[in-house]
Amino acid sequence: MKRHGRLSRTLLWAVGHGYTVDRSGAVFLPNGKLCRQRLIDGYWTITAGPGNGNERGAVRVHKLIGYFKYGEAIFADGLVLRHRDNNARNNTWDNVVIGTQSQNMLDRPLEDRRLHAQRAADTKRVLDDDGVAQLKADRATGMTYSQLRAKYGLAKSSISCILHRGGH
Predict the structure, then answer these.
(1) I need a labelling partner for 92 at 20 to 30 A (CA). Which of 5, 23, 154, 161 fits?
(2) In the prediction, which pLDDT does 127 show?
(3) Do residue 10 and residue 84 come from a single domain?
């Protein structure tokens, strides 16, 4: 179980002090009035906590809904709250579900996942297309893996991937 950070402590404070949600994703204050939500980083968020100063914090609405649905399980290691339709603004009860990060990624459309994977691969890429072509040419002329490792600063597994699977 994860230790509670500031954000989860703020969420627990809100629940403990009577904040509630309905199935549409609306949040209600302890007095029953509708709580104002604002969009922060693409997620509907409320502000909660004691007083007006540093004790107050942001709570993402989907996390509040997740807590009402799943309780402390939302804080378990390896679990996240997902938007089943991949729309972070859709906080309806049935759309917010608990799962793994892998499941969360699979909620994205296939093309979205491909673009995300390509961006991640591009940021880790050591050789550009010309470098890959040169490495393949060096290997074709007889350079050993040890020599290629020394020249390009790559692990043997990376060299093998480039040569045999077309990796970059």
Answers:
(1) 5
(2) 87
(3) yes
